[in-house]
Amino acid sequence: MLEIAVNVQDPAAWTPGVEYAAGLAAWANASFTGFHVPPAPPLLASLPEDVRAAPVDAACAERRVFREHAKERGIARAAWQVVQGYLPDVLAHACNWLDLFVLERNPQLAWGSAAQIGQLVLASGGACVVAPGEWTRHVRVERVLIGWNGSPEAIRAVRAALPLLHRARHVVVLAGAARNPYMANWDPPFDLSAYLGRHAIDHDVMACREPDAHAGRTLLEQAERLDADLLVMGAYGRSRFSEWMFGGATREVLHNAAFPVLMKG
């Protein structure tokens, strides 16, 4: 059973990212959890206990409404989780038992800018699907592009995406230069096509000869050409700090992807 969750900032108003997560859960026949982290008021410790508890109590009371909204969207198994804490820490803990956590790239939301989404992907340690806030298409995962460079991050992303790849109709691997020196002495070397074949996933392979500096742009262009419903890629294949600060495929995709992206660090 696939476990999909999403960060819900306003229980009363589902944003496009929450709607996308719900649609993905319905399409995949997955369980669906809404995580809500109530905003902490300033000087929290100095407030009376009943005042401190009020936002949490109000959020917990949204459980029935959330489940009703999920049921209306065809989701049979829905849960509502209220957590007090710092969102990256909450996400890191939640990803220990979830398969996919949906993050909405929407600068109008707290933790919604591309830079903040990058921080959350780094903090989670799990597989995240970054959904653009302007996404309005019917949710399905029929056409998938895999960005492949042989890195540990890319391998983990493909493995996390397997339940979705099984349901896809058209999977394309965009294969760039290998980046995993630890597999240099494997005999035979690890082969993604053989791995996907063992999982009965039909796919096509395209060679990417663009230099690393253009990898992000190439992924976006090929995903647009495929009309992909999902891009699967490893996050931060080089030093994570240097890639975020000085550019790289992850940063390019996080800022500019007009479609959902499954990332795994």
Which CATH class of the largest domain?
Answer: Alpha Beta
CATH-defined architecture of the largest domain: 3-Layer(aba) Sandwich
The secondary-structure element order is EHEHHEHEHEEHEHEHEHHE
Radius of gyration: 19 Å
Gap from first CA to last CA? 23 Å
Sheet with the most strands? 10 strands, mixed
Q: What integer is the average pLDDT? A: 86
Which oligomerization state do the chains in this entry correspond to?
single chain
CATH fold-level name of the largest domain: Rossmann fold
Number of strands: 10
Low-confidence stretches: none
Count of separate structural domains = 2
Shape, per Cα inertia axes: globular
- Output the number of helix runs: 10
Assigned CATH superfamily of the largest domain:
HUPs
Strand order of the largest sheet: 3-2-1-4-5-10-9-6-7-8
What structural class should be given to the helix and strand makeup?
A: alpha/beta
Helix content: 25-40%
**Percent of sequence in beta strands:** 15-25%
List the helices and strands and how they pair.
Elements: E1 3-7, H1 16-27, E2 31-36, H2 49-60, H3 63-72, E3 78-82, H4 87-94, E4 100-105, H5 114-124, E5 127-132, E6 143-148, H6 152-167, E7 170-175, H7 192-198, E8 204-207, H8 215-226, E9 230-234, H9 240-246, H10 249-256, E10 261-264
Parallel strand pairs: 1-2, 1-4, 2-3, 4-5, 6-7, 6-9, 7-8, 9-10
Antiparallel strand pairs: 5-10
